[in-house]
Specification:
Layout lengths: L1 E6 L6 H12 L1 E5 H11 L2 H11 L6 H14 L5 E5 L5 H12 L7 E6 L2 H15 L2 H4 L1 H15 L1 H8 L3 E5 L4 H12 L3
Bound molecules: adenosine-5'-diphosphate.
The site of adenosine-5'-diphosphate has 18 residues, from helix 2 and helix 3.
């Protein structure tokens, strides 16, 4: 099994590129953001708790998303691997992922990181807000908090995976097709 992590700031284009990646490499896409939005839409207890945190631009507790990931790994079998999108988002989540995979003698295959500058993050999120209508894209304050959360809590993962020789950065500022091609060029190596 291959375990790819799709990494990058909010609005980098992870969701857009994930669709092409799962198709080409026969992967199962796990987006923790999507899973959480489903819980919110279903009005579950977990969804209710997650909603206020997400709307504030904060992260939901590590153990919540870790549980989601582990149960997805267990329930999906008929693929060549997994594409993790939006997870891990903290160093503790990355360590938990390593432990979860080690239980079945597996490990992270590669981190594909789509990088764009902060100015572009806001531009992209504003554009997405007009199309998808996500609550956490609507408020300027929420977007600023997400960018801050990304720099404080998620960006340390760049060093975490660089040290392990697993970090591969892609320039996310080009067209959708250009970014997709750079991603494929990287993934073809594994
Ligand atoms: P984006 O693509 O803009 O980064 P996501 O759809 O991945 O947004 O996530 C939306 C929100 O869901 C995050 O801002 C966060 O509150 C919550 N979330 C998603 N994944 C995680 C995670 N791994 N750990 C904690 N919170 C998460």
């Amino acid at each position: 099994m291959k375990y790819y992590i799709l990494f990058g700031p909010p609005g980098a284009g992870k969701g857009t590129q994930a669709t092409a990646m799962v198709e080409k490499y026969n992967l199962h896409h796990i987006s923790t953001g999507e899973l959480l939005r489903k819980e919110i839409a279903a009005g579950s207890e977990l969804g209710l708790k997650a909603k206020s945190l997400i709307d504030a631009g904060a992260l939901v507790p590590d153990e919540v998303v870790e549980g989601m990931i582990e149960s997805e790994f267990k329930s999906i079998k008929d693929v060549d691997g997994f594409l993790l999108d939006g997870f891990p988002r903290t160093t503790l989540q990355a360590e938990a992922l390593d432990r979860i995979l080690a239980k079945s003698s597996e490990s992270v295959t590669a981190v594909v990181s789509i990088m764009i500058p902060d100015e572009m993050i806001k531009e992209r999120i504003r554009h997405r807000a007009s199309i998808e209508g996500r609550a956490d894209d609507a408020k300027e304050e929420t977007i600023d908090n997400r960018i801050r959360t990304y720099h404080d809590k998620t960006e340390p993962l760049v060093a975490y995976y660089t040290e392990k020789g697993k970090y591969h950065e892609i320039d996310g500022t080009g067209t959708i097709e250009q970014v997709r091609q750079s991603i494929f060029d990287t993934m073809d190596k594994f």
